[in-house]
């Protein structure tokens, strides 16, 4: 396996660990992808690519509005193993790093656009869905933080 931290980062991605409460989370939202075909059916954290000259926070708000039609309050970062300029991230495919933030839905009724299902998972249910391989280490990190 290659050292993801040693590879140049060509693209930043943001993901939301959507929970019921930012200070005492008990459930985590998982979303099932519909595309591309290689990833369809895999479960992930909602989010997407950061656009040029866009902050990570702005990108996450935009992506969640586009993908789920919700507004969120952002919480703490889920600390990853890859150092970014002012944060840390999680390695995806070569050249891609994802920063994950906790989030709580404040307004909106979930409307699925890029996903065909969502599920709220308790700590005991976290591995009941087939997470995308790159998201599994993040799930492991979040598991310790759910009550």
Offer a quick outline of the entry.
Belongs to the Nudix hydrolase family. It comes from Allobranchiibius huperziae. This protein has 147 residues and is of the alpha+beta class.
Give an overview in words.
The longest helix has 13 residues, at 56-68. The protein has two helices and nine strands; from the N terminus they run E-E-E-E-H-E-E-E-E-E-H. Strands 1, 4, 5, 6, 7 and 8 form a six-stranded mixed β-sheet that branches. Residues 1-5 have low confidence and may be disordered. The termini are far apart. It has 147 residues and is of the alpha+beta class. It catalyses: 8-oxo-dGTP + H2O = 8-oxo-dGMP + diphosphate + H(+). Belongs to the Nudix hydrolase family. This is 8-oxo-dGTP diphosphatase.
> Structural class, from secondary structure content?
alpha+beta
* Low-pLDDT sequence parts: 1-5
The CATH class assignment is Alpha Beta
Write out the CATH superfamily name. Nucleoside Triphosphate Pyrophosphohydrolase
Shape: globular
Beta content: 35-45%
Count of DSSP strands: 9
> Under the CATH scheme, which architecture would be assigned?
Alpha-Beta Complex
**Mean of all residue-level pLDDT scores:** 92
User: H/E series, N to C?
Assistant: EEEEHEEEEEH
Total number of helices: 2
Helical coverage, percent range: 10-25%
Span between N and C termini?
A: 33 Å
CATH third-level topology = Nucleoside Triphosphate Pyrophosphohydrolase
The figure for the number of domains is 1
User: How much is the radius of gyration in Å?
Assistant: 14 Å
Main β sheet profile: 6 strands, mixed
């Amino acid at each position: 396996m290659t050292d993801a931290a040693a590879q140049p980062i060509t693209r930043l991605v943001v993901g939301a660990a959507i929970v019921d409460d930012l200070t005492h989370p008990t459930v985590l939202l998982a979303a099932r992808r519909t595309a591309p075909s290689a990833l369809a059916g895999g479960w992930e954290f909602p989010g997407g690519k950061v656009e040029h000259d866009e902050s990570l926070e702005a990108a996450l708000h935009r992506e969640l509005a586009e993908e789920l039609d919700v507004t969120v309050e952002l919480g703490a970062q889920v600390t990853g193993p890859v150092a970014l300029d002012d944060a840390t991230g999680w390695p995806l495919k070569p050249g891609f790093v994802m920063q994950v933030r906790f989030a709580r839905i404040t307004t909106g009724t979930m409307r699925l656009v890029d996903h065909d299902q969502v599920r709220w998972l308790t700590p005991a249910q976290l591995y009941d869905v087939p997470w995308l391989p790159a998201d599994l280490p993040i799930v492991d990190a979040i598991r310790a933080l759910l009550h």
